[in-house]
Design goal:
Distance between the termini: 52 Å
Shape: elongated
Helix content: over 70%
Length: 1199
């Protein structure tokens, strides 16, 4: 006893750790649990907890929502403190918001995945403390929490049961034996049995995983105290009877053990066999009742050893203060019932059937599998669960989860399509409210991921493409017509004239170069003369005669100057004529017709580009038109633009050189002005008319040349750049046409039409850019034209050349006049003498000026050669341009042929697009279009990744589908739907890529469904084994075949009637219209195992009386009368023991107690009615008549 107490483990913790219901590993809910435990993403070995935030029936206010957000944030930031692995809140995304906020906005849920390493009690305490939110009703619930609350309810109920049982047994035994000592001894022996057996069972559980459940300890208490007290009553009653006959206590004890002990052993053996048979059960809850068998074995050992000890030690004091030890009293009730039963056996049996059949007929085995029914309504977890069922659907609090596990990743388009098809099929099952999966995370279809929506977009694009193709055909025809009307020959002629004018300009430039050389020679001579003049000035005072001798040189120089000016005048006239011809050619080349044609062609290509953009949106298949003509044209255009670019480069170089030369001419003019000033200082100043004429001519020449050549240089640079861009565009166009030509052989199907459109768009864009460059080139030519013609406020190059010629004419006139004035100059020499000294002092300046003039003239001569070379290059480039344009005329026909072919091709494409659109429209309206398709870009996107993480395992080999039913998840209807869902899932995946996948549905409803299947099947199996075991034991005890059948028939009748009556009482007084799922089983084993005792008591007394009389009727009536008191007392005690379960508040215990109590009451009346009646009908008629006569004689003697 002391060892049992010392070695007793922590019973409560063992029940929590090893006493939970265990379904077979093959059950679908257990398969699903294994998949969940290996899910990954930190969700393995976790339990789900739901935090409920509620504001009654009113919507949550803004302040309440903010406080809830703070609570949620607290949980997310304190995961380690609470053991949380994952948090799912309403504000995480749109899908969770839809699922976790009630429609009336009064309730919000927070889902937590909590590590199982901590106990449920500790976890519940921590999370409840953290979930408290000011101004909001907060509950923490979940299946594990509800189960833990049930364990606590059972433990508290057990404590009440133990106390009430002890008090009740003490009172009953005191009344039966009229002694306080007897109850104490009985309770002591049973209590010792209980403590020892409890220690043995719990150590077996701890060390060998012996079967255990929440009810093991409870039923050990009621069975041990119930039958233990019954056995004690039987033993002590026999002992009391033996004391009335024997004065020796030891002899009385021995006789009591021989008679009552044998009955106890037989009866206890049948109970032991019945509970031991439960060890063969498959269901853990049923198998856990085998612990009662261990307790019964210990009880029998203690009762047959410890009780005799007290009987021998106490003797008659065991019944103190009773002094009457007469024989045991008989039961008038059982005697009267058995007497009438044997007299009228048919009536007795008929009466039993009349009473029992209605209960048998009205009983339906509808059981309640809802764990909530076991709990008191005041428990917070149950309140929270009820709040969820009220404000959401009844299935929201405990959704079901369908798992699909394969040996390959499921995050691909093919498998996702099958998952979505299954999701849509599950939605069609009656009673299913919402279905959420990886393809429908919010519980509703995403229309953009279905072929129907995608085909609608395609067909709309096809319509636009058809319209665009019509526009393309029209544009191509128009472009072809415009090209046909274009007069490119005129442009070729203008280019030829431009080249001719440039040649003329080149000739004039050569003449200008010759004149510049002559001018340079004259300047050199002037420099020498200045030197001589300076020397003469120095000796002026001494040699005026020398000065006179030099007058002839002056006259010669003037003559030479006059001749040079005449030549310059002739050259400038030739330049003017050449520029005039150049201007006419440029005007011809920059006509408005070509520009208008270019703009119109650009506009048509823009329309073509827009149409191709519409075509790109759709797909189809047709033959691409022949584009070889366009490619040939693009190649020629590239070649021509390259040559034109080279010509522009040459022209730019020449004009730049010419501008530089004229800039030097301006410097020369400045020097001449200084010379004029120096001559003026000598006193022989030129007259105003001569000076003005010379200055105007030189200034006009310099200014005009610089301005016009600068403008021409800029225009040539722009022309070069534009032609360079045109070359680049042509190369780009040629490249795109090469790509387009390569693709044309491949684009034979409508699905690749968009690539053709894209390539066409790029090619057209390049063409438009090329046209822009060509337009820019034309504009450059117009700039050259403007430079030649001049603009407002600025003289043109042609006009400037004319001004040069006019100025030279004036200069010639001035030199003539200067020659006529030489005589006057000679006469004025005398007057020069007076200023000779002053002139000598300034002769250095004059020398420097003449040196600069000579240098400038030398540079002018050099630049004139560069100008000539530049004009030669320009002339060559223009000739090349002329040849290119002449070739372009022939290529334009090729381009027109290509445009015509393209126009015909667009018509064929349009026909193909129309056919494809008709087919796709039909497909869109068919059932085949309702197919899920996720593009690769969407599948790899950030948004879809969230869905994959939420509904697929860490390695993507498993996925889950969350199913919410619209009814109580523990109801019979919900469990039937689980079977339908499981069958539908397996059928839907047959013939698909997921045909070999493991499919299992988990969740509370699935667990309950598996529990129902397992419990129902194992109940029948276990009950059959138990009945067979008891039947064999009864055959051994009664030494009969029929009597065990009579006994078991009586017990089964009492069992079914008690179930029916208990159901009526439960509905009327407990508010529960159904029995809990385990009530029939526990009621069966308790009533059958314990009720058989009373039958064994009767039959053992019947056999005992067989030693004194051989009439079965008399023996059964006497046995009934004698044993009736014991059975009634035992039934009262056992009923009281089970009645002690009612205050526990646990529905299962209450209903089991009612079944046993009602069953015992029925047996009290059924046993003395059925068994004597059947025994009466068992024997032959002659024996019956003899028994009848002996029975009457016995009755007379008794009276």
């Amino acid at each position: 006893m002391c060892a049992a107490v010392i070695l007793l483990p922590n019973v409560g913790q063992l029940v929590r750790d090893k006493g939970q219901m265990k379904l077979p590993s093959s059950a679908k809910s257990q398969v699903a649990q294994v998949i969940q435990d290996n899910w990954g993403r930190d969700q393995g070995n976790t339990r789900q907890v739901v935090v409920v935030f509620n504001n009654g029936s009113s919507p949550l206010t803004t302040a309440q929502k903010n406080r809830i957000k703070q609570t949620v944030s607290h949980f997310k930031t304190s995961k380690q403190k609470y053991g949380i692995k994952d948090v799912t809140a309403a504000n995480d995304n749109a899908a969770t918001k839809k699922q976790l906020i009630s429609k009336d906005k009064s309730t919000e849920l927070l889902q937590l995945m909590v590590d199982k390493q901590q106990t449920v009690k500790k976890m519940k305490t921590l999370i409840t403390s953290g979930a408290k939110t000011q101004g909001v009703k907060t509950y923490v619930t979940g299946s594990d929490i509800l189960n833990d609350d049930f364990i606590q309810e059972t433990e508290q109920g057990l404590k009440k049961t133990e106390l009430i049982t002890v008090i009740f047994i003490f009172i009953i035994l005191t009344l039966v034996f009229r002694s306080p000592i007897t109850p104490l001894v009985s309770l002591l022996s049973v209590g010792v049995s209980f403590i020892i057996s409890l220690s043995v069972v719990m150590n077996l559980v701890e060390k060998f995983n012996f079967p255990l459940s929440n009810f093991t300890q409870v039923f050990m208490v009621v069975v041990l105290f119930g039958i233990g007290t019954d056995y004690n009553i039987l033993l002590f009653d026999q002992y009391k009877e033996e004391l009335s006959r024997e004065k020796d206590v030891i002899t009385a004890t021995r006789n009591a053990l021989r008679i009552a002990g044998r009955t106890i052993l037989y009866s206890g053996s049948s109970v032991l066999i019945g509970f031991t048979a439960l060890g063969l059960a498959n269901f853990s809850v049923y198998r856990s009742a085998v612990g009662v068998a261990v307790a019964v074995a210990v009880l029998l050992l203690v009762l047959l050893t410890l009780n005799p000890f007290f009987m021998w030690i106490l003797g008659r004091r065991l019944f103190w203060p009773t002094k009457n030890f007469g024989s045991g009293s008989s039961s008038r009730l059982w005697h009267g019932i058995s007497t009438r039963a044997v007299r009228h056996p048919f009536i007795a049996i008929a009466l039993v059937l009349v009473i029992g059949v209605p209960f048998l007929a009205t009983y339906h085995n509808e059981l309640n599998y809802d764990t909530l029914a076991e709990l008191n309504d005041s428990i917070p977890a149950k309140k929270g669960f009820k709040v969820v069922q009220k404000h959401f659907s009844k299935g929201t609090a405990e959704p079901s989860t369908l798992y699909i596990k394969t040996n390959h990743p499921l995050n691909n388009e093919k498998d996702l399509k099958e998952i979505d098809a299954l999701t849509r099929r599950l939605k069609k099952i009656a009673g299913v409210k919402t279905v959420a999966s990886v393809t429908q995370p919010g519980g509703s279809e995403i229309s953009s991921l279905y072929v129907t929506k995608q085909l609608k977009t395609v067909t709309n694009g096809m319509k636009s493409a058809s319209s665009g193709l019509n526009q393309i055909g029209t544009g191509l025809n128009s472009a072809n017509q415009q090209l046909g009307n274009a007069n490119l020959q005129q442009g070729v002629t203008g280019a030829k004239q431009l080249a001719s004018g440039t040649a003329t300009l080149k000739s004039g430039s050569q003449q200008l170069s010759s004149g510049a050389t002559t001018l340079a020679n004259g300047a050199s001579a002037l420099q020498q003369g200045t030197t001589t003049y300076t020397s003469g000035i120095n000796t002026l005072n001494n040699a005026l005669n020398t000065l006179n001798s030099k007058q002839s040189q002056i006259t010669t120089g003037v003559g030479t100057l006059n001749s040079s000016v005449a030549k310059l005048q002739s050259g400038s006239q030739q330049v003017a004529a050449g520029l005039a011809q150049l201007q006419s050619k440029v005007n011809a080349a920059t006509g408005t017709g070509n520009t208008a044609q270019i703009q119109e062609l650009k506009s048509k290509l823009g329309e073509l580009n827009s149409a191709m953009a519409q075509l790109e949106k759709s797909t189809g298949s047709t033959n691409l038109p022949d584009i070889s003509g366009i490619k040939t044209t693009a190649t020629a255009l590239t070649s021509s633009s390259t040559k034109a670019q080279n010509d522009a480069q040459t022209l730019q170089t020449a004009l730049t050189s010419l501008a530089s030369s004229n800039s030097d001419a301006a410097t020369q003019q400045k020097m001449l002005n200084e010379i004029f000033a120096a001559i003026a200082q000598t006193g022989t100043a030129l007259n105003t008319q001569q000076k003005a004429a010379l200055t105007t001519v030189m200034s006009s020449i310099a200014k005009s040349n610089v301005q016009q050549l600068s403008g021409a240089t800029t225009a040539a640079s722009s022309l070069k750049n534009d032609l360079s861009a045109l070359t680049t565009a042509g190369n780009s166009l040629n490249t795109e046409l090469n790509q387009l030509n390569a693709l044309s052989s491949q684009l034979s199907q409508l699905s690749n039409l968009n690539q053709l459109a894209a390539s066409s768009i790029q090619a057209n864009t390049a063409s438009m850019q090329a046209l822009d460059k060509l337009s820019s080139a034309v504009q450059g030519m117009q700039q050259i034209k403007s430079a030649l013609n001049g603009s407002t406020g600025q003289t043109g190059l042609t006009s400037g050349s004319q001004q040069v010629a006019s100025g030279l004419s004036q200069l010639s006139s001035g030199t003539d006049e200067m020659a006529s004035q030489l005589s006057q100059y000679t006469s004025g020499v005398a007057s020069v003498t007076a200023g000779a000294n002053k002139l000598a002092s300034n002769s250095g300046t004059l020398t420097n000026g003449t040196a600069q003039l000579a240098a400038g003239n030398q540079q002018l001569a050099e630049k004139q050669s560069e100008l000539t070379a530049g004009l030669t290059t320009v002339n060559s480039g223009q000739q090349t341009m002329y040849n290119s344009l002449q070739g372009l005329v022939g290529q334009m026909q090729t381009l027109r042929n290509g445009l015509s072919t393209a126009s015909n091709g667009t018509q064929k494409i349009n026909q193909g697009v129309g056919s494809a659109n008709s087919y796709l429209t039909g497909l869109k309206n068919s059932a085949a279009s309702k197919t899920y398709y996720v593009p690769k870009s969407v599948l790899q996107g950030k948004t879809y990744k969230q869905s994959l993480q939420a509904y697929m395992s860490g390695n993507y080999n498993a996925t889950k589908i969350t199913i919410v039913l619209d009814e109580n998840p523990s109801s019979e209807s919900a469990m039937n739907k689980i079977s339908t869902i499981q069958d539908q899932a397996q059928k839907s995946l047959k013939g698909t890529a997921l045909a070999g996948a493991t499919v299992a549905i988990g969740g509370q409803t699935s667990t309950t469904h598996d529990l129902q299947q397992t419990a129902s099947n194992d109940f029948l199996r276990t009950a059959t084994i138990m009945l067979i075991g008891i039947l064999i034991a009864l055959m051994v005890i009664t030494r009969s075949v029929l009597q065990p059948l009579y006994i078991l028939g009586t017990l089964l009748l009492a069992y079914v009637m008690s179930l029916s009556i208990t159901k009526l009482i439960s509905s009327a007084f407990l508010g529960q219209s159904m029995l809990t799922w385990n009530t029939p089983f526990f009621g069966f084993i308790m009533l059958i195992a314990l009720g058989v005792d009373y039958s064994i008591f009767l039959m053992m007394k019947y056999r005992e009386f067989g030693n004194f009389t051989g009439t079965p009727i008399i023996r059964i009536v006497r046995a009934s009368a004698v044993i009736g008191t014991v059975v009634i007392s035992a039934a009262v005690i056992l009923s009281g023991t089970f009645a002690a379960l009612i205050p526990s508040g646990v529905l299962t215990l209450i209903q089991v107690a009612l079944v046993v109590i009602i069953g015992l009451i029925i047996l009290v009346f059924a046993i003395p009615t059925i068994i004597p009646s059947l025994i009466r009908l068992t024997y032959p008629l002659k024996d019956k008549m003899d028994d009848e006569e002996k029975f009457k004689e016995t009755e007379k003697k008794q009276k």
